Amino acid sequence: MIKTFDNWLVEAASSSQAASQAEYGSALNDFYTGFGGIDFFLTGTKMSLPLHLRSLIDYIAKRETALTEHDLTQEERKFLYDTVCGPNKRTILRNGFSYPLWKSIGADNLPTAMSPAGSEKELDKTGSLFNPELPGVFMYTLGAINPNNIKINSDNSISVHDNYDMNSTDISFEDLSAQLVTAVKNKWNGTGTLYSIIRKIVSFNELFGYKGYPVNLNILSTGDPNSPKPQSILADIIKAATAAINPSEQPEQPAQPK
């Protein structure tokens, strides 16, 4: 039986100790199967979701291919370009992306701290965790990125490279389980954040061997993509099937010497 998000949190909150790794792993597998499966049902409407939610769904579904500029809307690409090349250009090229930077350009009303301070931001309803403005969208998507991974190229396009992950490879299963239970209890008591609960839950992906997926964004000054759109696997299948059905359409092979 697939566990719902609410049921999963209730189970976590009802115990002060983590379950055995095998039992916990089985429950998480059920949770991820159900939650990751949302991606299938959202195929037609996924691009209507904010980028940070689309990226999170891809992470939960264990995406392997890179996130490219083709996964962003025109508005998202233009915002990222203008952010890198705008008034904060020198700061970004020197220090990279950081949470203080995102907050300074419009995301200050959003929770990030897994603490009472973050809880207060959730409670005052001034910012939406699920539908923030673009500074918040990119804060939750890209977070902190080393300045060496952000470039303005000779053609004035920008390149941003990173890996989408939760930085949870250095924590033990038992410690992360205990942190999740604490996060749920703190949220229930009004001193924690939903943000911290979500971070803890999805971080289990990395304990089970998943390492996230690459971020490889190349954007022109117009906000247009600066690389060819990757051909889908479906297109390759159709092309191969067409060639098999109509062999006459395939290019002639040179005659072999007798």
Radius of gyration: 22 Å
The quaternary state of the protein chains shown equals single chain
Strand content: 5-15%
> What structural class do helix, strand and pairing data support?
alpha+beta
Principal-axis shape? globular
**Overall strand count:** 4
Low-confidence stretches: 1-6, 12-20, 31-43, 114-120
* Mean pLDDT value: 77
Query: Helix count?
Result: 12
Across the major sheet, the strand order is 1-4-3-2
Q: Give the number of domains.
A: 1
Keywords:
single chain, 258 residues, alpha+beta, four-stranded mixed sheet, 12 helices, globular, disordered N terminus
Describe the 3D structure:
The chain has one domain. With 258 residues, the chain is an alpha+beta fold. The N terminus is likely disordered. It is globular and about 55 Å long. It has a four-stranded mixed sheet with strand order 1-4-3-2, with helices on one face. The termini are far apart. β2 and β3 form a beta hairpin. α10 runs antiparallel to α11.
Task: Write a brief caption for the model.
The protein has 258 residues and is an alpha+beta fold.
Secondary structure blueprint with pairings:
Layout (H helix, E strand, L loop, with lengths): L4 H9 L7 H16 L1 H4 L9 H10 L6 E2 L5 H12 L3 H7 L3 H9 L8 H8 L10 H9 L7 E3 L5 E7 L8 H17 L4 H14 L5 E7 L13 H13 L13
